[in-house]
């Protein structure tokens, strides 16, 4: 394959469109969450991911799993956890069965903020997708996103 290969050009164009769609959606949601709830997209995502943990077998996520879920490095995720803990939105405690492990849970204040922010996130996502659907280059990607059914 060369840089002028039509397949590569189409692939590159597709990647650019996907990147553009992601950037527009994230920026729109970021503005809405910041304005209404003083939360960034990453903070919202972290609260959302951690709120889905449970106390049963495999119910608590390791920091690497959390980092993967919020698409950050482990060190950036740790800094984000610390910021949210400082705001009283997260709690950390030692694993009761392995004193080396540290669990991170969403506090009651964090759960309340997450409940308040979810409709804002959903509305902003819908608005961003609707706006992107008006762009002929992005419309196929919007349809693909809308058609996704991800297993829980």
Task: Describe how the helices and strands are arranged.
Elements: H1 6-37, H2 41-51, H3 63-70, H4 74-86, E1 90-94, E2 102-106, H5 108-133, H6 139-147
Antiparallel strand pairs: 1-2
Helix pairs in contact: 1-5, 2-5, 3-4, 5-6
Main structural class: mainly alpha
> How many helices?
6
The low-confidence parts are none
Fraction of residues in helix: 55-70%
The gross shape turns out to be globular
**What is the terminal separation in angstroms?**
38 Å
The SSE order reads HHHHEEHH
Mean pLDDT: 89
For the biggest β-sheet, the strand order reads 1-2
How many E-type strands?
2
Biggest sheet descriptor:
2 strands, antiparallel
Rg, Cα atoms, Å: 19 Å
Strand percentage lies at: 5-15%
What does this structure look like?
The protein is mainly α. Helices cover 65% and strands 7% of the residues. A two-stranded antiparallel sheet has the order 1-2. Strand 1 and strand 2 (102-106) form a beta hairpin. Helix 1 (6-37) crosses helix 5 (108-133), helix 3 packs across helix 4 (74-86) and helix 5 (108-133) packs across helix 6 (139-147). The protein is globular, with a radius of gyration of 19 Å.
């Amino acid at each position: 394959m060369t840089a002028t290969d039509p397949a590569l050009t189409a692939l590159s164009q597709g990647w650019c469109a996907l990147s553009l769609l992601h950037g527009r959606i994230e920026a729109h949601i970021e503005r809405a969450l910041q304005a209404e709830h003083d939360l960034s997209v990453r903070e919202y995502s972290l609260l959302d991911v951690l709120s889905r943990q449970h106390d049963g077998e495999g119910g608590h996520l390791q920091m690497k799993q959390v980092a993967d879920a919020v698409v950050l490095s482990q060190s950036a995720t740790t800094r984000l956890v610390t910021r949210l803990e400082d705001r009283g939105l997260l709690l950390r405690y030692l694993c009761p069965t392995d004193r080396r492990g540290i669990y991170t849970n969403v506090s009651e204040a964090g759960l309340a903020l997450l409940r308040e922010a979810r409709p804002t996130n959903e509305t902003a996502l819908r608005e961003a997708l609707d706006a992107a659907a008006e762009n002929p280059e992005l419309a196929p990607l919007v349809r693909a996103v809308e058609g996704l059914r991800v297993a829980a």
